[in-house]
Amino acid sequence: MRKTVIEPNGKNFQYWKDIWNYRELAFNLAKRDITVRYKQTKIGLGWAIISPIVNMVIMTFIFGNLAGLKPDGDAPYFIMVYAGSIPWGLFSSSVTTTSSTFISNAGIMKKVYFPRILAPVGALFAKIFDSLISMSILLVLMVFAGYFPTWKFILFPVFILLSVILGMSAGLFLSAFNVKWRDIQQAIPFLISIAQYLTPVMYSIETIPDKYRLLYSLNPATGAVHAFKWCIIKEIPFDFTSFFIMLAWIVVLIPLGIISFRKTERTFVDIV
Hints:
This protein has helices at residues 12-21, 23-38, 46-66, 77-99, 101-104, 106-111, 118-145, 156-180, 183-195, 210-217, 220-232, 240-265. The chain is mainly α.
């Protein structure tokens, strides 16, 4: 008989071994989130379709028709907006969900031990599920518009994953502050709503003057969103500057996020 020993707040190898042994918990948590979100709703998964489409229509009307912003390349404006919304939505929801993991999962975390990092991982699996639905809608919209991608389209899972990793690593880092100062929980959605306008979701990165391009690219979401749009829109060039800056943010935030998260998980029950 194989025995699995779980040590609360186990050190190093044992902690990561616990994560591997209980990896199915992440999928069960994702299933729970998906079920709870659409349970007892008349439309069900239809909300995952309606919400992004309505958001696309509003942004297209305001920024495309009223403001007269131009799309990337020759793509229809609404295709560009929808394509940019997918990685942005993943990044922003990853930051918000992960940063509040100790607050939203306090009930179960106080009752039983499991590697706490599985809670945000499971929640992000549910977000990825929603993004796959959004990708299917994007394909339908592209067929409707008669706009078809090139071979670059097959690379979209890479940039979806990078968007999630970037958002999760930032969220892990912020989760420690969120436990001590609840103002952080209120500030994050507010700052993210502002950051959306500083990210090339509803406009092309080419509209940014060259002398401000490097400063603009310091926003980590810029590289994630533009790289994903590069997969979809065939005419735009790959922006290596914003992409490598995004990778640099990931390299820095992953260890910082894990260290701060693990430090917080040892003491959060005394605070929350």
